[in-house]
Amino acid sequence: MIGSLTGVLTAKSPPHLLLEVGGVGYELEAPMSTFSVLPEVGGRARLLTHLHVREDAQVLYAFGSAAERTLFRNLLKVSGIGPRIALAILSGVSANAFAVAVRSEDAAMLTRIPGVGRKIAERLIVEMRDRIDSEPVLPGTGIPATSVAAGAQSEAFSALIHFGYKPAEATRLLKGVEPDEGTLSTEEWIRRALQSAVRA
Questions:
Q1: Boundary of a domain, candidates 83, 104, 132
Q2: In this structure, is residue 119 part of a structural domain?
Q3: How far apart are CA 38 and CA 43, in angstroms?
Q4: pLDDT for 42-64, tens place per residue?
Q5: Alpha-carbon span 150 to 143, nearest angstrom
Q6: Is the separation of the CB atoms in 42 and 79 below 8 Å?
């Protein structure tokens, strides 16, 4: 089992990233909460990992903290929750907000996350309630100011599609993002779009 990787970040295109470790490039998938704390391409990063094995593929997931990975693993224990939905949950809502929704039995809020329908939301509330109290809570993390190449919005659109949104929904969410002064990074486009989806 691969527990962690430390190396040079050679590519990132949410939710995918490439980390070179000792001359070997590891393809990883990560939630937006992890992308928000990654260095620029060319920087060094240490990531905790979870290897998910299925019949047709082996996928390595990466996390910026033990709390993220623990929550991801606990989500996989919920009936009907696979890695894709678990990744969407970590990308679409903070750990604090998720804990609040579970404790307050706010299924409506959870169903705003792509891939989470009413039945899954209710299952999350029932099965995660006992785990959430012992779950380490992720502190809020800000996106570092970055200079971004053109196409950030297009990359954000592709990432939203990967997270389960339909093209029309992804377009609507991105149109609702109001850029601050300067250019938004791909990660910031995605984070703001997902936040608006949860608030909607």
A1: 132
A2: yes
A3: 8
A4: 999 999 999 998 888 899 999 98
A5: 18
A6: no
- CB count within 10 Å of CB 190 equals 32
Are 59 and 95 within one domain? Answer: no
139 falls within a domain: no
- Taking only the tens place, the pLDDT of each residue in 70-121 is 889 989 999 889 999 999 898 887 776 788 788 888 898 889 888 888 999 9
User: What's the whole-number mean pLDDT along residues 127-143?
Assistant: 53
Q: Give the H or E element holding residue 28.
A: strand 24-29
- Token output for 99: 């804990």
pTM above 0.70, yes or no: no
Tell me the β-bridge partners of 21.
24
Largest CA distance in the chain: 48
**Block residue for tokens 């990432």:** 159
d(CA 170, CA 175): 9
Structure tokens at 191: 């984070």
Number of domains within the chain: 3
Mean pLDDT, the chain, as a whole number?
81
Domain that holds residue 159: 152-199
